[in-house]
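Tip: read the tokens left to right.
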């Protein structure tokens, strides 16, 4: 199984999302975190089943919350690096620069 690693900018993305939802309703934050954890496990188990978006970057789109989880697979190291968690309405250049 692959090890999941989050780039610092991806962690910043997540923190900004959590901060936003905390203001609205902490229950929404909990639901977001739960879905993100579930999607991360799916990525970890079947990383090659997700389409490439640009170069070697793949994406899984969350169902309840409209965020894309963008990641790269490093097969030799058995590692997956999450590079961004970005809302689907945002400019794709944000994750493409990472």
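Filled-in amino acids:
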């Amino acid at each position: 199984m692959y090890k999941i690693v989050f780039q610092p900018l991806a962690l910043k993305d997540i923190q900004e999302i959590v901060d936003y939802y905390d203001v609205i309703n902490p229950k929404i934050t909990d639901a977001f975190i739960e879905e993100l954890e579930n999607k991360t496990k799916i990525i970890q188990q079947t990383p090659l089943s997700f389409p490439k978006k640009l170069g070697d970057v793949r994406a899984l789109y969350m169902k309840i919350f409209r965020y894309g989880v963008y990641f790269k697979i490093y097969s030799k190291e058995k590692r997956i690096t999450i590079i961004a968690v970005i809302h689907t309405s945002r400019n794709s250049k944000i994750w493409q620069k990472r």
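Strands lie at 3-6, 52-54, 57-61, 67-74, 79-87. The two ends are 25 Å apart (CA to CA).
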